Amino acid sequence: MKRQSGERQDRILKFLEIYSQENGYPPTVREIGKELGIESTSLITFYLTQLEKKGYISRDPAISRGIRLTQSDSPHESRAPRGDIVAIPFLGTIVASEPINSEALPGDETVELNQAFFGRDSNSLFALKVKGNSMIDALVHDGDLVILRQQERVENGEMAAVWLMDREETTLKKVYYEDHEVRLQPANPTMEPFRVPANQVLVQGKVVLVIRQLS
Predict the structure, then answer these.
(1) Are 214 and 160 in contact (CB under 8 A)?
(2) Regarding the domain with residue range 85-211, which homologous superfamily does it belong to in the CATH classification?
(3) Can you tell me whether residue 7 is helix, strand or coil?
(4) Given CA atoms 23, 123, 83, 58 in this order, what sign does their dihedral have?
């Protein structure tokens, strides 16, 4: 059993190296289990805990792709390059929050991701946790993290965080500019879009990445 555990840990490390090198980001626990032919996520989590104790990996349990290789020596002769890890400011939940602007970006709570996702321009990124299922058909679920690029305008149909001045809250919707109004379109067939005067809407950032929170 101990030998089998060691072999599986080696396979996980090798898969992490190859997957991260090919995709620029780490696999999920379920993807690791599929590679090893193991359905139990608890068993994969056990192996990951052992690798973390040995210093081969580090994990952020708050996100589904929170596994990353460390600089510790791997049992393999060759290692895939980690790439640059960037710390993206986490601003909280995208419901009834304060307006998001450059002065609001805190430095004490962050989400770490591979820079390969975003290229060199990562300074204008921020992260929000989604509350609600208004964008479920766009594969954004309650509890997910969204990574946004700070900008004041998006193209029609793009998903963005917008500040509603009269309501004093933020919302995550697809944005459509229609004459003197902005249509904010949910991606949920049970919900209706709503229109807001263009001068009452301030785009805070465009969604560039969704990080699924696995239960």
Answers:
(1) no
(2) Umud Fragment, subunit A (2.10.109.10)
(3) helix
(4) negative
Question: Which residues does 59 contact at the CB level (< 8 Å), separation at least 6?
Answer: 48, 52, 66, 67, 68
Q: Are strands 194-197 and 181-185 parallel, antiparallel or unpaired?
A: antiparallel
- For residue 169, with 0-12 CB atoms within 10 Å meaning exposed, 13-18 middle and 19 or more buried, which class applies? middle
Domain with CATH 2.10.109.10 in the chain: 85-211
Task: Report the CATH fold assignment for 2-69.
Answer: Arc Repressor Mutant, subunit A (1.10.10)
pLDDT tens for 14-71 read: 898 888 777 767 888 888 999 999 888 888 888 898 888 888 888 876 566 778 887 5
The two most distant CA atoms of the chain are separated, in Å, by 68
Report if pTM > 0.70: no
Catalytic residue IDs: 134, 173
The answer to whether 85 and 113 are in contact (CB under 8 A) is yes
